[in-house]
Amino acid sequence: MKLSSFRKKSPWILHYNAGGCNGCDIEILACLAPKYDIERFGMINTGNPKQSDILLVTGPVTKRSRERLVEIYAQMPEPKVVVSCGVCACTGGVFRGMYNCEGGIDQYIPVDVYVCGCGTRPEQIIDGVIQALAILEKKTKELEQSVRLKKEPVKEDTQLNRRNIAGEIIKTA
Ligand code: SF4
Asked: Going by CA atoms, what residue is nearest to atom 5 of ligand 1?
């Protein structure tokens, strides 16, 4: 079975609040609760960027959070997908123009999915994450393809070692 086939069935999500009001974060918590139950898609919320596939960011970038945001993004292994959750994360929102606000997160890291709303509704977050899954599958396939083009031996049981640095592929026994 190909890596892209099963990876999208068990993505790990990392949530980071770059400087929002907590409104969007409460909606993310609602997604984890039984009513919306985002875990039915095989997702879990993790606290370690080195084990994450999807970065879910709320709030605008502030002068204090920008360094952490870039650091977290850099620590995530490839392939990875970024979801900008809420109008603040997309554009700066109500904080735009304030002395400590630098705008949307795409000023510093590449964003794959933009989810609007203030605060974002759980249905919108789930929709955004499902879009992220499709992008994650596409990126995984591209990564697999690039390995084949390098003419490295690829077996059916080849896996990405999630503990390794971004993009590195190891052969398993
Ligand atoms: S989009 Fe609205 S609810 Fe979300 S962090 Fe910004 S102000 Fe708060």
From this structure: 20
Number of H helices, E strands in the chain: 5, 9
Q: Where are the domains of the chain?
A: 3-141
Which 3 state secondary structure label does DSSP give 55?
A: strand
Return the CATH fold of 3-141. Answer: Rossmann fold (3.40.50)
Atom of ligand 1 nearest to the CA of 58: 5
d(CA 95, CA 104): 10
pTM of the full structure: 0.82
Give the H or E element holding residue 137: helix 122-149
- The 10s digit of each residue's pLDDT in 82-123 is 999 999 999 999 999 999 999 999 999 999 999 999 989 999
Give, in order, the Cα–Cα distances in Å from 125 to each of 115, 116, 136, 149.
Answer: 7, 9, 16, 36
